Amino acid sequence: MMQISTPFMPEKGVIRSIVPMAQDNYLFEFKTDTDRLAACKPGQFVELWVPGVGECPISVCSGRVTESIQLLVRRVGRVTNALFQMSEGDWAGLRGPYGHGFPVERYKGQNLCMVAGGLGIAPIRSLWQYVLDHRQDFGKVILIYGMRHSDEMLFREELKLLLQRGDIHVFLAADDATVCELPPFAMQVGRVTDMIRQAAIDHDFQVAICGPPVMYKYVIEELKAKHVTDQNIWLSLERQMKCGIGKCGHCFIGGRFTCQAGPVFQLADLKFVPELIECDNGGAQ
Amino acid sequence: MTTTTEQKTLPCIAVESLTGCAGELLVILDNLEQLLPFVRIVSFPFAQSKNECGPVDITFVEGSVSQPHDIEKLKRIRSNSRWLIAIGNCAVWGCVQAGACSRCHVEDMLHAVYGDESPIKALPARPLSDFVHVDAMLSGCPINATQFLSVTASLLKDHLPYITHKPVCLECKLRENPCVLIEKNLPCLGPVTAAGCGALCPSLGAACYGCWGPCQSPQMAAMATILQEKGYQLDEVLSRLQTFGAPDTLFARMKPDAEVA
Amino acid sequence: MSGIERRTIEIPEICRVEGHSAVTVDISDGRVANVQLEVFEGTRFFERIVLGHQYEEMPHITSRVCAICSTGHVLAAVRAIENIFEFKPSVHTNLCRQLMHLGMIIESHATHICALALPDFLKTPDLLDFATKHQKEFEVWTKLRNLGASIQTIIGGRPFHPVNLHVGGLSRYPLEQDLMPLLRILDESRTYALHLCDLLSGLTLPIERTAEACFLAVVPDGPGYGYFGEVVRASDGWEAPVANYKEYLNERVVAYSHAKISTHLGGKPFMVGAMARLFFFADRLGKTARSVFDKSPLASGKACSLWNNLAQAIEILEAIEQSIVFVEQLAAGGFESEGATHLDGLVKAGRGVGAVECPRGTLYHYYELDEKGKIVAADMITPSAQNTAQIELDICTVVEQQMALDPALLQSSLETLVRAYDPCNTCATHMVQIRSVKAK
Amino acid sequence: MMDHCFVLAKDSFAEFFESLSKLGRVYAPVKVSDQSYSFRQVESHEQIAFEALRTILPPKKYFYPTQETILRYNDVQIEEHKPEIDFQILFGVHPCDLAGLGIMDTIFTAGPADSHYLNRRQSSLIVGLSCMPDKHCFCQSMGTDCPESGYDLFLTDIGDDYLLEVRTAAGVKAVDPIMPLLRAAGQDDESRYKAFWSNRAQAFTNGFKPDNLRSVMAMEWDNKIWDEMADRCLSCGNCTPVCPTCYCFDLVDIASLNGTSGERRREWDSCQFVGFAQVAADYNFRPGPVDRLKFWYRHKLHGFDDPFGFQTCVGCGRCTVSCPAGIDDIVSVVQALQATNQAKTKHDAN
Ligand SMILES: Cc1cc2nc3c(=O)[nH]c(=O)nc-3n(C[C@H](O)[C@H](O)[C@H](O)COP(=O)(O)OP(=O)(O)OC[C@H]3O[C@@H](n4cnc5c(N)ncnc54)[C@H](O)[C@@H]3O)c2cc1C
Ligand code: SF4
Ligand code: SF4
Ligand code: SF4
User: Fold this and answer.
1) Which residue of B has its CA nearest to C252?
2) What CATH fold (topology level) applies to the domain C46-428?
3) Is residue B44 part of a domain?
4) How far apart are CA B112 and CA B107, in angstroms?
5) Atom of ligand 4 at shortest range from CA of D58
6) Residue A88 domain-assigned?
7) Of B156, B188, B223, which residue sits at a domain end?
8) Is residue A3 in some structural domain?
9) Does A260 touch chain D (CB under 8 A)?
10) pTM as predicted
């Protein structure tokens, strides 16, 4: 009898470089034997496996098709800690790419606002790389990036270049910006919601959002105030994902597997999903 | 078996005990052949007399803190160890002696067991994490050998182990046992007890008595309600639920009429 | 004080015993002035812990006194409570319990001899040394321990802290297919036990003589060598029902130790354990064990306490032979599948004592129940507590013989002595380690 | 309709069983306690509990084991673990369980297919068996009471005989050796068959109508009934492994002591456990029993409407009988919700 193969087989990804971006946030570059992973779309993710420890979903943050992929990882727990102990030349397992990323084809010809909170910058970075590579396809482009502290800024060098380009409007905000950046960083004290208020966003914008669960509710309120419709709001959701392929059930919300139907969802498409943005009591146990 | 020179470069482990029944030590002894090729045992006072107290990579500590001497010892262990792992119910929850402490003052116990003039200094039994930072907790009474070995394997690689503390009911259903709580009205504590034993008791047709300590986020109030409905008196239910060291805090949400005695 | 030579020997923590303990000897003017065997295992308060619990929880709670003889605690508790209810367990239940107990004897004795006592004689202070330099003994230990663990797992559900033994019976009885594989292992294990007997009989002891001991042991029910009974016998000719234990065991609290100390009949130290049992009941041994006993130094009746280890090896041999018989009897009796007997109708208020010969000696459990079966009073007297006074006496004798020796040698003799008793401090509350011998 | 139908005398069942067991291991319900049955391997037809309605675990365990290794690794390579798969025969699968397997098939084939599941599924023969509902059965309400597929053979109890439907090529092959025992179904057999199914249809008594579940659930999301139930919920997770359509699992790495090799395993998991929807930084989307309980009900009642267009409850009643807290009584809970909802809508209309 013909036996098919398991979809849980990772590819070996050899670490090519590790670049610290901020404390506990490193950019890992992986090279795999096939180019299946490198050809992924902005907003898609991979399941990263550290043998003997486990897997976790990580967004691919490189939006350009090259022979390797980049993952920006924050050290938070078991798997990520183990990854941080690895060095160049070591290998980890990679499965993917999974999920539907940001619908870049639908964004084309329109104005685009990208909103990132903290680590949410990782998938957003793949989106902006795509947008810059196809800049002529888009109208006005805005990037809003909020963080807790200006020290935590990720992709600092690239943001510097973005700020210099002029064809993309960048807003940077930190809750706490005691170490005020020299130009070109126009770091403001505040939240992403404050930036949205400042930015010239109207109903004509497509908005792509990624950030911590608590952020979404406020961002959505702010966007609605600017008459952005549910059709034009795109959320990248975080859930526990053990398999990434719509089987393990952990990411199931409102009738869909986040890993397969998402992780990027159109707000209009999420009709009755009670625990969509956050749980009723804020996630406290 | 490895030679002495190789031994030097192997990760060092220590097995220490505070106040307990030595069960975890026996489990480790029983699995010694598997461990020895990969570790150097620098201290294991139960089983060897040449023990060092220098820095160690992993220290497994069995037993609860039950006397001032235990605290000192534990603090010394903590400062010597890269990873400190609590093994066994005593170290994780305090086991039966902690269970009793939540129902009776330690002075009364001292009095009851040793009489009036006892010079003995006893503390209410507490788990290790009440005194020092514990890197991982492996519950069990005794611990499960397979789980112990795989946790050790993770730690030897400097990785934190994956320990979830799902309830015994999961293992019970995976073994497809008829539920003794439903079918025999036995006071089975499987729903609030951490899995790992393989649902030993229900698999034999008996009620789980909770020896692995509470599972993650146990629903104590609901458990008490259901057992009461089955005819068990509240005080009996509470004493069963706390036998193996479940702390008072887990009962905080119980309704006023179910106040902890 | 001048002119009088005083010194103190301190062994602050004795290793390779179960639990934590220390020895202090004061020597004054060439005589031993004071001996203290201090158990500083944290207190466990079991007599208090069990109060308010239901009778059926006793096996589970009291097994936590000590892992290595958890089966003994379970059976003592079960017997005590069944005595209150005047309940007689079925033949089948008794066979299972006896087999279970033998599993514990094999496992506990093997661990004690090989891991805790032998390293003294073989001079292997660390485990790896032992495992590499004495592969045969290491293997013997592993095999016997595994045998004991398998027996206890098959009957009790796991190697220790059994979950299957209850007041009234077992919750599930072992099936033929569970038990039969044991026969082959038991058969092979004889050679391991014989190896230990040979090895131990051939040892030269570092101590010539210990204090003369009064032995106490339970007279086994039935004709064979056994570990359960209702009457206790002493080598000074006295006998009493175990139910009267309070009258003949004087348990007292001492300032220096967390273990209580027992003496027999108003102050006389005594010894319990394998040596005591063999002293009385060697004539009940099976053929193989009997012939080993007859040729051993134990046959003289008055032996040094250090031979306790040999006595244990002989008991392992006997236990293997007995287990074979029990497995065969269980098989012949057919494998019933009764679940734990429901005792609901029998529950009543009362007091009861259960005594069991554990690896280290007689263990007593006493309970008082109210009419609902709730524990209102309890008492547990462990063998190690009973032996403490005798160990102190022995220490005294040894120090007087060897006072002139190098302190390191003397310390090692004392440690060897203490380990021979295998005092279980976890039981007595827990036990010993040696750091240095200081002469002050 | 009686094209592929034969009559097997009950007296000949032993021979039928013999012939089945020549094909591979046979699994069938056996009695394991006063109230419970379980699918176990059977050596003789006498072990089979024909009266069994629901087993503790549904037959999904034969395709999706409670625990299995999916890959092994060492320091140089990752190796797929291919389980040994023997041909297996499941005997006595009732309509609800057949429907349950159908749902499992959908999940495990959607997207990248799950090889372990499908490989096992393809090397099995499923023999269905008719049943008479008890008070906890509601497959009729869920529309899963008369299966049209998902089996190779199906036996309907028509008195002294079974009516044997042969559904698939594998089924044809399986009955080939026993053709001499069978006779083609005639008119009388057909009427006995129809009588059985119509009697059975009458036997469902709870009158449960799972209408408008989606809107009822949405409107009653804050109904206090959930909190009342959650006060009793033990979060023990008994309701999920027993459900024929619950598929969730956890993936676990087991490292070896040598530091270089190990394996990855999957184990059944449950949405009722507190860690299930927890993400990094200990953020939990369903922290309380009430959140998890509502999630489960919703998932069972209309959770798969969107991706697949069907409900995931097949009405077997297992969750109801396996819940130690007695709160997984789907029928009464939904009926209560429907009642309050109706009252509400009436009130609004007025
Ligand atoms: C689509 C997507 C994209 C992401 N992209 C990125 C990215 O680009 N960069 C990045 O750094 N992070 C990203 N994350 C977050 C990342 O997946 C988590 O930070 C990661 O899972 C942490 O893994 P860990 O093992 O280090 O953490 P841990 O906190 O140790 O645990 C890992 C996961 O295991 C689960 N878990 C823990 N305890 C239990 C338990 N008791 N029972 C069951 N499960 C348990 C938790 O759900 C937790 O999420 C992304 C997440 C998603 C969903
Ligand atoms: S027997 Fe106990 S552990 Fe098993 S399912 Fe029932 S309540 Fe849970
Ligand atoms: S009491 Fe509970 S946790 Fe302990 S062995 Fe029995 S089933 Fe397992
Ligand atoms: S939800 Fe309950 S009744 Fe429905 S299929 Fe699952 S177990 Fe059966």
Assistant:
1) B114
2) Cytochrome-c3 Hydrogenase; chain B (1.10.645)
3) yes
4) 8
5) 7
6) yes
7) B156
8) no
9) yes
10) 0.89
Single-letter residue type at A200: A
Element (H, E) at B28: helix B23-30
**Which residue range forms the structural domain that includes residue B63?**
4-156
Q: From the CA of B212, which ligand is nearest?
A: 3
Q: Determine the residue of D233, D236, D270 to mutate for testing ligand 2's pocket, defined as the one with the most ligand atoms within 8 A of the Cβ atom.
A: D236
User: In chain B, which residues have their Cβ closer than 8 Å to the Cβ of A53?
Assistant: 154, 159, 162
Reading chain D (350 residues) residue by residue, the pLDDT tens digits are 567 889 999 999 999 999 999 999 999 999 999 899 999 999 999 999 999 999 999 999 999 999 999 999 998 889 999 888 899 999 999 999 999 999 999 889 888 888 899 999 999 999 999 999 999 999 988 888 888 888 999 999 999 999 999 999 999 999 999 999 999 988 999 999 999 999 999 999 888 888 788 888 878 888 888 889 999 999 999 999 999 999 999 999 999 999 899 999 999 999 999 989 888 777 888 888 888 998 898 888 887 777 777 788 999 999 999 999 988 888 888 888 888 888 877 777 66
One domain, residues B64 and B180: no
The closest ligand to the CA of A258 turns out to be 1
Residues 150-189 of B with CB under 8 A from D: 150, 152-154, 156-157, 159, 162, 164, 166-167, 169-170, 173-174, 176-179, 181-183, 188
CATH number at residue B149: 3.40.50.700
The whole domain housing A236 covers 104-278
Residues with CB under 6 A from ligand 1: A 45, 56-59, 72-74, 76-80, 119, 122, 238-241, 263; B 164, 216; D 275, 278-280
Residues in chain B closer than 8 A to C145 (CB atoms): 29-30
**Which one of D144, D310, D314 would you pick to mutate in the ligand 4 pocket, going by the greatest count of ligand atoms within 8 A of its CB?**
D314
B26 and B146 together in one domain: yes
Regarding whether A250 and A212 lie in a shared domain, the answer is yes
Does residue B163 belong to any structural domain of this protein? no
Is position A5 within any domain? no
Same domain, A78 and A141: no
Q: Which of residues 117-156 of B touch A (CB under 8 A)?
A: 153-154
CA distance D49 to D67: 26
In a domain, B228, yes or no: yes
Q: For residues A140 and A270, state if they share a domain.
A: yes
Say yes or no: A193 and A61 in one domain: no
Q: Compute the distance between CA of residue C227 and CA of residue C94 in angstroms, rounded to an integer.
A: 12
Asked if residue A1 is part of any domain, the answer here is no
Q: Which chains touch D (3 or more CB pairs under 8 A)?
A: A, B
Count of domains in chain A?
Answer: 2
The reply to whether B204 falls in a domain is yes
ipTM of the complex: 0.89
The reply to whether A121 and A216 lie within a common domain is yes
Tally the domains of chain B. Answer: 2
Q: What is the dihedral of CA B240, B244, B248, B250, to 10 degrees?
A: -90
Best probe residue, ligand 1, of A76, A81, A86, A102 (max atoms within 8 Å of C-beta): A76
Do residues A243 and A156 both lie within one domain? yes
Distance separating alpha carbons of residues C207 and D329, to the nearest angstrom: 74
